[in-house]
Design brief:
The chain has about 575 residues and is mainly beta. It has five helices and 32 strands. The protein has a six-stranded mixed β-sheet, with no helix packed on it. A six-stranded mixed β-sheet has the order 21-20-25-30-27-28. The radius of gyration is 25 Å and the shape is globular. The termini are far apart. It comes from Heracleum sosnowskyi.
Length: about 575
Amino acid sequence: MEAMSSIATLLHSFFLLSLLFLFANASPKTHYHDFVVQSTPVKRLCNTHSTITVNGQFPGPTLEVNNGDTLVVKVVNRARYNVTIHWHGIRQMRTAWADGPEFITQCPIRPGESYTYRFTIQGQEGTLWWHAHSSWLRATVYGALIIHPKQGDSYPFQKPKRETPLLLGEWWNANPIDVIREATRTGGAPNVSDAYTINGQPGDLYNCSSKETVIVPVDSGETNLLRVVNSALNQQLFFTIANHKMTVVGADASYVKPFTTNTLMLGPGQTTDVLINADQTPSHYYIAARAYASAQNAPFDNTTTTAILEYKSAPCPAKGTSIKPVLPSLPAFNDTATATRFSTSFRSPRKVEVPTDIDESLFFTVGLGLNRCPSGANTNTCQAPNRTRFTASMNNVSFVLPSNFSLLQAHHQGIPGVFTTDFPAAPPVKFDYTGNVSRSLWQPTRGTKVYRLKYGSNVQVVLQGTSIFTAENHPIHLHGYDFYIIAEGFGNFNPKTDTSKFNLVDPPLRNTVSLPVSGWAVIRFVADNPGVWLMHCHLDVHITWGLAMAFVVDNGVGELESLEHAPADLPVC
């Protein structure tokens, strides 16, 4: 009898331990990381550069977490430039202090200093990424941030055999900081990049690059998940794989209704998760990306980066020979029809609750401009067309970053004189936005203007591209929020006729919208995250010129609707 009782006790204990083990595995975890920002010798295109990296890696470390987990990342700056890190697409509920854009939510981390970012992932699954948000450092300071489902949950699609992040980037045969400093001095456009990269490598079609070309291994018959990120600084990119179709299952860490395509188009900041079936003859196939360049007559990097999809069962080449991978056909650089077909294919997997009773109906023009050369200025400092300097704006306001305090500090502590709350809800002058715009409208005003939102308000923003100087596709990113893209189109938005195109049933949820060239897009969100949130074009040359604004979202009622207190180690300006 005693033996039976002992066995029962043991079984009971084993059962309890198993439950505890399962619970411990299923409960959210806290992940601790150290990021050391430092100068590292990196050789690309036959030249070695002193490149700013994280932990000596280019691209930087991939962070992997589960939905519900917390990240604690201590960033130590051992480089010669100021730096901040932005966790692109993370909602940062009540933790705006950890968002990262320089002079918006924090002062920069000075050389020799450090700052610890703490935040929890809430209700997001899929692919995001992190990058520097200070000058042009994100050219090389970036990495993937992968959010798996909660422990015990699964993907809403077939479980892939393996997963591969593919980060698309841009490489200069120069120091990117010098490139933008030179452009700021001259007032002209910065030099375009010398190569595109996949996971930091240009690939076979560039000099001195073949040996390091990225290999993506597959087995015949398996289904794999590719997590594609456009981490390029200034260029939208087409992406394709020779002879293989892709099934899109996610974007910007939200699941989408699956659809099949031969080509992706990603603006900088955007991510796309795709399934590929290894169903072709075992061989080597190029994965390739090249520019989607929509601005007429503007210079761009017209090269192609490649990686290789390699079937493990592919026949080995004869001694002394090599197998030339199959090259895919990529769209022409100005193929707006393909870009549009792709961007308008996105839907949420099911019916969603789109905000309908709109409290704030906003209309923002988005585009470039030209500033007249200041009187007495050297001609060398006015090298944009007709002796001018390039600029950019939203609603005719070219955004100026503060320098003594971050906007979030000024808002939270009530510091006067840092910003004004008079960012216009509509353009100060109505005009034919995508037509032949009068030269009198080409020079915007400068200012640090924000738009204030009450907590919980339902917001609609019509983003309207302009043809000032040149029309082009703009990837518009909103910090601290995901938003529904309920419609997009070409020409000028017409509230009488275009509202009939609104998808209020299953629009996609994104954090970055590709604003069509000479066109418009309409987004909606609920202002449920207090703080100061930057909205900007993710072409870094355009944010440098002022194509940005910020929302100040007030606290709601009680602690759970209010911004957390600032961390003790928040950098000072």
